[in-house]
Amino acid sequence: MKKIIFSLLVLLISLDLSALEIGKVPPSVELSDDKGGRLDGSSWNSSEIKDKVLLMFYVDPDEKNMNEHVSTQIKEQEFDRTTYGSIAIINMKATWLPNFAIAKSLKKKQEKYPHTLYLKDLDKTLVDAWKLKDDSSNILCFDKDGSLLFEYQGKLEQKDVDKLINIIKTHI
Known about the structure:
The chain is α/β, with parallel strands linked by helices. It has a single domain, classed as Glutaredoxin (3-Layer(aba) Sandwich). The chain has five helices and eight strands. It has helices at residues 2-14, 68-77, 99-112, 125-130, 158-171, and strands spanning 30-31, 36-38, 44-45, 53-59, 84-91, 116-121, 137-142, 148-153. The strands form two sheets. It has a six-stranded mixed beta sheet with strand order 2-6-5-4-7-8, covered by helices on one side. The protein has a two-stranded antiparallel ribbon with strand order 1-3. Helix 2 (68-77) links the parallel strand 4 and strand 5. The radius of gyration is 17 Å and the shape is globular.
């Protein structure tokens, strides 16, 4: 009996519990009302991930600098904004900082970076729906059809940044 329980436990641990799969469109997610959305209060749906290669940062505000080197290197590429876009989703529930303070900071960022769509996730919706890493930095890249091309949770090493840039260049 112990062997059966141990085998089942090993099997469960080895299963990939991610809701995301490379080459597939992720399950639809909506951020609206008490779940979050755009800075102006309007809703956002992941079905909007289309028509451009889109790079998404899903970030705990306490870890906002974890992948700053990625943002810097992507900006240096000066990708054509007619074929490339970026989304920053802030995991508002992952921090002790008050929402009003984060929202104020996001409005300033939106003014500074008008080509990036800034969104608020007030209830860890993407952590639950897409199994993104909580209290961290997640980077995802999607093709023009909304299929996932790249996913990384945590701090990217340079080889992964290079891989991401090459993926974007290939799919633009």
